[in-house]
Amino acid sequence: MSDIKVKTAPVQGVNGGSASHLLEIENLHVEFRTRDGVAKVINGVSYHVDAGETLAVLGESGSGKSVTAQTIMGILDTPPGFVTGGSIRFRGKDLLTMGKDERRLVRGEGIAMVFQDALSALNPVFTVGFQIAELFRKRRGMSRADGYKRATELLDLVKIPAAKARLRDFPHQFSGGMRQRVMIAMALALDPEVLIADEPTTALDVTVQAQIMDLLAEIRRDRNMGMILITHDLGVVADVADRIAVMYAGRIVEQADVHNLYGKPCHPYTLALLDSLPRLDLKGQELNTIKGLPPNLLRVPSGCAFHPRCQMARDICSTQRPALIELGGVRSSACHFAEELYGRE
Amino acid sequence: MSEVILEVRDLVKHFPIRQGIVFKRTIGQIKAVDGVSLDLHKGETLGIVGESGCGKSTLAKLLMNLEKPTSGEVRYQGRDVLRLNPADQRRLRRNIQLVMQDPYTSLNPRMTVGDIVGEPFEIHPEVAPKGERRRKVQELLDVVGLNPEHINRYPHQFSGGQRQRIGIARALALKPEVIVCDEPVSALDVSIQAQVMNLLDQLQNEFNLSYIFIAHDLSVVRHIADRVGVMYLGKMVEVGTDDDIYIRPTHPYTQALLSAVPVPDPTARQRKAVIRLEGDVPSPANPPSGCRFRTRCWKAQEICATEPPLLQIRPTSGHPSACHFAQERDVVHAG
Fold first, then answer.
1. A277 vs B190: CB contact, 8 Å cut-off?
2. For residue range B151-161, what is the model confidence (pLDDT) as tens digits?
């Protein structure tokens, strides 16, 4: 494709004037008001992503990783979900205070998203070609024929064989892997600068997963896109991420670059998670487990939310919530004993 | 090795594809399971891995006698399960139980945990007299690590991992010798997976159970299985001990599958041998001639299209492998 834009990395911030990040989430708070009470789903999450890098957001179900992504995209269901604080700055402009129309322009062109379940994310009653071409007609004012032409190019780009013929197919006529490629093509249509991939390969088989992850990495490289990869799979993260943010009960508990996180995790949760993993390259005996269950967000434990399951927990953990402690470089950990963990051999 | 408890010989299951409303014509066959043989020894865990559509869940249903096979036999302690009279069959079924994948849909939401775990006793009243059932159920809950006082709760009051424990308690109720686990941990979070796998391990030692452990996650199977069978499009392509399969795989499909599994170690990025398969699994309604893997295989030659390779020990493979060009290659550890 001829019209791939290569973006320049650091962006000049609007407020403050100093160089800021391409996409920066700061102190985000989201709550769900349900019949049973208020669930604080996201409690002060901050992270950023720059052009050309991959940030992995890692967490179990209910940790708030997908809700963060939905909030960035502006597709959070309200009610029950409400943003109660924080900011999401894209190229220095806060998406949360933006008008509806302005925000719509960011969606797709600035930030695009690939969802986990392509079958339910695509419209079953329109052909794939129609759905992709629609983007070009609505947003680029193209004619029908031109839209279809661009759609063919996109399907070629994501390596769908016989792209032109497949434009006339409906989503259900594609296999799982091919459907995911269609979704990626659609997300790339308007040349986004940041791509959010929410569990893009969870529903796929390993050999297909490898194909899709390769494709995403290749596209990210070619277009110098920033990518946020949301996943629970520690294996996938180790393969593709540059930096990692680990989430637990709506907070980031640890941030680090990929080598440091796996080499020397500095939060007991990350440590325990890595320990509990059955590994392909090693035959272990008994697996180390994390006792207990992930917390109910309606009743998050006091102090550190992880303390009831933590092996290192002491008295202070149940009374005082640990702040995110900087550990040098891009590392930080929200544990009272982070420095102790960092200092160990 | 200990005695063989379950023997499967040339098991075949074809599902007809029908068309038409009044006059239904059969226009083809989905070859879900196409000639699978395996032996399960007492006290061992046989892992079955493969991608979706390879027939592993159909195999589970056939072993449970929930589907009638097109041909082939399943022998339990030397007796053909499929040709028994109904009364014998019922008695025999007590000994093979199933743990299902999805703990959210496999438990009846309108029954209490006590009713769910105790239901096997209703069907097989000879196992526990009526008065003892409640106590038995509480014992079972205790064995799987649930609070016996929660006997009157409903499934929705439990988390995913706890529900899977309920499913396991139900499978244990009749003191079976074989448990078929169909993706028992794939619906669970990472931190919960380890708990359930340890529980399965511990129950095996305690009750001398034999497991058939079906999963698509190769690292989970590596952890729990003594022997592993790899399936592709309804056929077993390679069988061996876990080291045979994970360290000395000889079938190209096994090698590709293993190399595609992401290893949770960023330093492995460079040294990992990566084999990328092209395309998707072909349709089981119309599998390729000869070797079914040949359309995606980098070693394929003419013989592969004409002659289906047999699952056998070969000069280049110390364990059974269904490839004309079987060759050892450690894809997980070496670069």
1. yes
2. 999 998 888 88
